[in-house]
């Protein structure tokens, strides 16, 4: 009974990580346990960082994984439109003390093969990671930056992380978009045609099959073990 209770507690904290210090995005308040994480970003916050300085952005190898989970946000309420003549994109905005790093992470799954480009801008630094690999990086001084083409395969989940750094003592504002190769769409990731977005990791079919097979194997072993005990 005790081991079963401990397993439940462990599973609960894996599915619903706690926030150690609540941080409010100016345009929206992070939600810890939404009914669904579809269309949302998991938000992580790292304060008093020493690996970012003025004119820098987060790169591979930086300890940004130390950021603390704050909750889930939509990213669709930022004020970036007044700075950009294109569609809104996904936008974040708040007042903040520097130096800080803000990570917005989600998973995207395309319903068909697509070639995409990412574009980002903001102060002071912006980065985009796909499956923990840097695909775009730039700073406020370099202006908007665009990634090279990235191929998405049908039904494959990709972990997408947008990371903004603030090195000043004023408010921060970041924006990023995703373009299809033919230029037919650019805007919020949550509204992208042919893309499913979910802040919670979605297992691929092979993983589901493997997990199911493992569970069936455990059931079979337990059944054989109980038969031996009965003798």
N-to-C order of helices and strands = HEEEEEEEEEEEEEH
The proportion of strand residues reads: 35-45%
The CATH architecture can be named as: Sandwich
Helix content: 10-25%
How would the blueprint of this fold be written?
Elements: H1 2-15, E1 41-47, E2 68-73, E3 90-94, E4 100-110, E5 114-123, E6 125-130, E7 133-139, E8 145-146, E9 150-152, E10 158-166, E11 172-180, E12 186-187, E13 195-198, H2 205-230
Describe this structure in words.
It is a single chain. Residues 1-22, 80-86, 206-212 and 227-231 have low confidence and may be disordered. Strands 1, 2, 4, 6, 7, 10 and 13 form a seven-stranded antiparallel β-sheet that branches. This protein has helices at residues 2-15, 205-230; strands at residues 41-47, 68-73, 90-94, 100-110, 114-123, 125-130, 133-139, 145-146, 150-152, 158-166, 172-180, 186-187, 195-198. 34% of the residues are buried. The chain is globular and about 45 Å long. The protein has two helices and 13 strands, in the order αβββββββββββββα. It has one domain: Jelly Rolls (Sandwich), CATH 2.60.120. The chain has 231 residues and is of the alpha+beta class. A hairpin with a 2-residue loop joins β6 and β7 (133-139).
